[in-house]
Write a structure and sequence with these properties.
about 140 residues; alpha/beta; 7 strands; about 25% strand
């Protein structure tokens, strides 16, 4: 049986570079240009007009997290994501201390273009988390 060594998370979106750059800021990722190119602009200029801006990718500079791949699709987002990212900023924290960390990160991400959707408060089983949307409306949680 083969074992998975690596995986990437793929986002369908209207503007791959915009969404990728948002997630780079959220996660501290980097967006090196494709192999053989000095910049993303150089790469885009090398593509036929209809393929320019069709995709963008970013990586964890530590090599620990998965590669994120963003691909342009013609349709708009219509329904709730079936899969989403949990941005783990409050790991190990509880109560007011956890809420303060979640709120601070929420404020930072709203300044980048994210939207705060709702706070899910601790219920005796799960700790509090914040449901948010990225710059194209994809749901994610601050956890």
């Amino acid at each position: 049986m083969a074992s998975v060594k690596q995986f990437q998370v793929t986002f369908d979106c209207a503007d791959p570079e915009r969404v990728a750059r948002f997630w780079c800021e959220v996660l501290g990722y980097e967006a090196p240009p494709p192999r053989g190119f000095g910049s993303w602009d150089d790469y885009q200029r090398s593509q036929p007009e209809e393929r320019r801006g069709a995709w963008f990718a970013c990586v964890d500079p530590t090599g620990v997290g998965p590669r994120l791949f963003f691909q342009r699709v013609p349709e708009n987002k219509v329904v709730k994501n079936r899969v989403h990212l949990d941005v783990r900023v409050g790991t190990g924290l509880v109560g007011d201390e956890r809420l303060a960390v979640l709120e601070a990160e929420c404020a930072r991400l709203v300044a980048l273009g994210a939207v705060r959707v709702r706070l899910l408060t601790a219920d005796g089983y799960d700790e509090s988390c914040l449901v948010m949307q990225d710059v194209e409306g994809n749901e994610f949680c601050l956890d």
